[in-house]
Amino acid sequence: MGHFSKFIPAGSKFLKTKTLINFHRWAFVTPGNRVVIQFMNRDSSAVATVILLESGATEILQVSLRDPTFPTATTPLHVSVLNRDYDRVHHLLTKEGVHPCITDQTGCSALNHAALLGQMRICELLITAGANVNAAAHDGSTPLHKAAQGGRADVVQFLLRQGANLNAENKRGETAYTIASHRNHMQVAVLLYQIPVAKREDNT
Fold it and tell me: Do you know which SUPFAM superfamilies this protein is assigned to (predicted)?
């Protein structure tokens, strides 16, 4: 464990996982204020998250450990979304009390990732749980930007119905329409272009 051993209280039990080359390092605080270090990667994340949560972990320290190889800290909710694990996301939100608006080190919410991946059911679940449809990451990207980036027309339509800001710009001055156009996602670009046209016609 090297210098990370100083974060582990005496008597703590180590979580046994496969030897990993690339992994994330997380720190959890249990109700008894004990710190548990979690090592995981894509292959073992779901199992490791379940073990820690069922052990009583209630809060993640997103800035406690910084790994230069993985500068973007994440959370169990983000990992579950990235793994497209609807059941785990549902469990975290409804049984573990995880806040749907929690962000990673880039300011991305779980909804941002779900929108990019086109995970409609997870997007619906997050919105129902209270996720902010217009929450912007540090680069100004909203879930609508991410859905446009991924060419997810169905998610774009869903987010707009939920009140997503069509004209929101990221820090490069790009709207969702701009991103869809530049990435040649023409179905999404046409959809986003037609909405303001339809609104103008409704007002005439």
Answer: Ankyrin repeat (SSF48403)
